[in-house]
Each structure stands twice: as C-alpha cells, then as structure tokens.
Amino acid sequence: MKKILITGGAGFIGSHVVRLFVTKYPHYEIFNLDKLTYAGNLENLKDIEASPNYHFIQADIVDGDTILNLFKKHQFDGVIHLAAESHVDRSIENPLEFIYTNVVGTVNLLNAAKVIWKDNLTDKKFYHISTDEVYGSLSDSGSFTEETPYDPHSPYSAAKASSDHFVRAYHDTYKLPTVISNCSNNYGPNQFPEKLIPLFIHNIKNNIPLPVYGKGINVRDWLYVEDHALAIDLIFHKAEIGKTYNIGGNNEWKNIDLIKQLIQIMDRKLGRPEGASLSLITYVTDRAGHDLRYAIDASKLKNELGWEPTVIFTEGFEKTVDWYLNNNEWLQSIVSGTYKNYIPKKV
Ligand code: NAD
Ligand code: TDX
C-alpha cells in the first residue's frame, strides 16, 4: 500500500488528479491536503469522498510545523504538489499571498519530505506541478522547451518560478527525488469561475458583459484537464528523478477567437439566434504585464514517455460547456458563496 499526498486536491486540476488516483489505484492510500481557500471546493470530490482509500486533511502548507507533523504521522511515499494561489489577476492585487503559499508553502513541503525521507529515499518521489507562465511571453513564433530560460512577468508566475527553483535546489543540494512539469492553460469541469472560460460561460448564460482584456489578441494553449491528469499520472510513475517535462495541448487560440467560438456554441445550446451574445463582448483595460503568447513544445514528454493529448479541442470545449450548463447548481453555489458550507469528511 503506497501513501500518496496530493496537495490542492479540492481545486480545479487537483480534484481531477485525486479522482484519477483514487479510482485507478485502489491499492494506494490517497491523502488530499487542502486549506480550502476560496478556490477549494470539496463538492468537486463528492463522488469519490466515501472511497476507503481516500482521506481529506484540511491544512495550510504555509504552516511548516503542521506539515512536518503530518509527514511524521502518515509517512507518505510520494507527493504530488498542486496547492497554489493560481489566479494571475489576484496576484496583481495581492502578491504576498502568492509568495506565502506558492514559495513558502512549497519549501515547507520540500523540507518535510527531506526530514522524513532522509534515511530512505528508495521509491520516494516529490512531484511539483508548475506552469508554462514561468517561461515568460512569446511573440508570434516559437514555443517553450524545457531549456527555455525562466522569465516570469506576473507576481503569480514569479512565485511559481521561485518554487520551481527551490524544488531543483532541494534535488541538487539534498538529493531529494524531485520531478517538475510545466503545463499550459487547462480547461474543463470544476474550474473556478474567475478564469476566462467558466467566467465567460456564466456571463453569457446570464447576459452579463464579457470583459475582454486589451484587444483580445493574447494567445493561450489550451489542454483538457483530464489529459493533464493523465500526464501527471504518467510522469509521477515513470519519470526519472531530477527531470522536467513540458505539457501542452498543441492548441493555440487567440483570446477573441476562443471567445467567439464559445459564443457560437452557447447561443446554439441556449436556443438564441446565432451571434446574439456577440454584443456582450466588452473590451476593457488590459491586464498589467499581460503576456502576449504562450506555446508549449511537449515533444520531450511524447518521445520519452509516450504522452499525447487525447481530447480533441472541439469535443472537449463542447463537453465543457455542457458540464457547466448541466451543473448550474455547482456554478450558482460558488457565485452565491454557499459552497463554503459543505462539510467534508476528514481523517
Ligand atoms: P485552483 O486555484 O483551482 O486550486 C488550488 C487549490 O489549492 C485549492 O483547492 C486551494 O484551496 C488550495 N490551496 C491554496 N492555498 C493553499 C494553502 N496555503 N495550503 C493548502 N492548500 C491551498 O488551481 P488549479 O488551477 O487547479 O491549479 C493547480 C496547480 O496547477 C497550481 O499549482 C497551478 O499553478 C498549476 N497549473 C494550473 C494551470 C491552469 O490552467 N489552471 C496550468 C498549469 C499549471
Ligand atoms: O476576464 C477575463 N478576460 C480576459 O480577457 C479573464 C479572466 C481573462 N482574460 C484573458 C487573460 C488571458 O490572456 O484570458 C486569458 C486567460 O486568462 P486566465 O483564465 O486568467 O488564465 P491565464 O492568466 O492564462 O493563466 C492560467 O493558465 C496558466 C491559470 O490561471 C494559471 O494558473 C496557469 O498557470
């Protein structure tokens, strides 16, 4: 029986990773450690919370003593670290929160693993989940490889870059068995409706203006969240210690084109005349330091471990819209704040 600690499991990507591990590996004990910030929602895991191999721990990774005690108590064999402050706009408003959770929180986890694993590193792995935003911004051509120098621009990406450096420092200095992956923008069910796609789905449905930053010309690469979870599973089990992998969807969209595509799908599904919701598009002041373009070269992951995205974007996008329309209660419980009343099952 392996004991795996997954941090940030009540969030968007974390909940998909927890579900995959709990259902695919009944012989693992999965510990979901989450502070339940505004972004943590245990309703995301309602379907698996009664599984005998699933445990929830409410804790803050910034609290180093608690984290060390949890490592002592549970003797985790592996860590998949997703907990983070994740929204760029919030990082512009309040950078310190991002330094505490993304940097100090990550170092607390590294430190606990170092202390507890020091005598026996066999079959241990500390897997840090990071973002393509650490590489900075591209112009019209080219893509980020694992060798692209770090060049973060937002407080969010600066904090994530810093956490990546600490992970490598713990590997190089203390031989901690670490792995890192840097992924592009995820989309799919359970994403907090502050991020572009779920926010715009909510707004279109309710005839609320769509705030498009700047001219809408920024480009993002979009990957279906379950494909990210599959990549995480593969990297956790197969990657050599000390390695880094980029993960991407090979699926670049200019924001305004993505938004128009979303409007087309939504108008059709809501029975509105084609293009009816285009009038909701409202160009607003650009995000400060807004990175122009991200693009990922994921060939290392494909060549070395055989991973490729499985979900075709047109299908994944349609499926995503359907999920939010069919799970209006989930969306409304966030908008109204009642999701905070959900009582979790704890260890
Ligand atoms: P999210 O904001 O949806 O979830 C983050 C989770 O972490 C929440 O459940 C929250 O409660 C928890 N958390 C926050 N601070 C904590 C703390 N101090 N202690 C314990 N738990 C805490 O984020 P997400 O979009 O699911 O992203 C997960 C990870 O993946 C992050 O590390 C992010 O940087 C990375 N990532 C995200 C994307 C993306 O497109 N969303 C892309 C690449 C990488
Ligand atoms: O209201 C909006 N209007 C708008 O034009 C919002 C919320 C966003 N945007 C633009 C900004 C970006 O160019 O849409 C694009 C996507 O924005 P977000 O959904 O905020 O994502 P992004 O800033 O690209 O970062 C995401 O992908 C990488 C995640 O939030 C990060 O956690 C991840 O690391």
The biggest beta sheet is recorded as: 7 strands, parallel
CATH class identity of the domain at 3-188 and 222-249 and 289-311:
Alpha Beta
For the secondary structure, the number of strands is 12
In terms of quaternary structure, the protein is single chain
Strand order of the largest sheet: 3-2-1-4-5-6-10
Bound molecules: nicotinamide-adenine-dinucleotide, thymidine-5'-diphospho-beta-D-xylose
Whole-number mean pLDDT: 96
Total of helices? 11
CATH architecture label of the domain at 3-188 and 222-249 and 289-311: 3-Layer(aba) Sandwich
User: Uncertain spans, ≥5 residues at pLDDT below 50?
Assistant: none
CATH topology of the domain at 3-188 and 222-249 and 289-311: Rossmann fold
Reading the helices and strands in chain order gives EHEEHEHHEHEEHEEHEEHEHHH
Distance between the termini: 17 Å
Describe the 3D structure:
This protein has helices at residues 12-24, 64-74, 88-93, 95-117, 155-174, 196-205, 225-238, 255-269, 299-305, 313-326, 328-336; strands spanning 2-7, 28-34, 54-58, 78-81, 125-131, 178-183, 185-187, 210-213, 219-224, 244-247, 252-254, 281-284. By secondary structure, it is an alpha/beta fold. It has a domain at 3-188 and 222-249 and 289-311: NAD(P)-binding Rossmann-like Domain (Rossmann fold, 3-Layer(aba) Sandwich). The longest helix has 23 residues, at 95-117. The chain is globular, with a radius of gyration of 20 Å. The model has no long low-confidence stretch (mean pLDDT 96). Bound molecules: nicotinamide-adenine-dinucleotide and thymidine-5'-diphospho-beta-D-xylose (TDX). Nicotinamide-adenine-dinucleotide binds at residues 7-8, 10-14, 34-37, 39-40, 60-62, 82-86, 101, 105, 129, 131, 160, 183, 185-186, 192.
